[in-house]
């Protein structure tokens, strides 16, 4: 049935969009954590210098 195929395609697109947004938020969170740890290490190095 053509309608079922179209509906399945839309479901897949929604699922892909959801996964993409989740992955992007996880990546941004990881970048933020990594950036703050690097900054802390850099500040510590400046303090000891």
From TrEMBL:
Q: What is this protein called?
A: Uncharacterized protein
Q: Which domain of life is it from?
A: Eukaryota
């Amino acid at each position: 049935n053509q309608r079922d195929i179209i509906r399945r395609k839309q479901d897949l697109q929604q699922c892909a969009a959801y996964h993409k947004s989740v992955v992007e938020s996880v990546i941004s969170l990881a970048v933020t954590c990594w950036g703050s740890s690097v900054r802390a290490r850099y500040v510590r190095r400046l303090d000891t210098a």
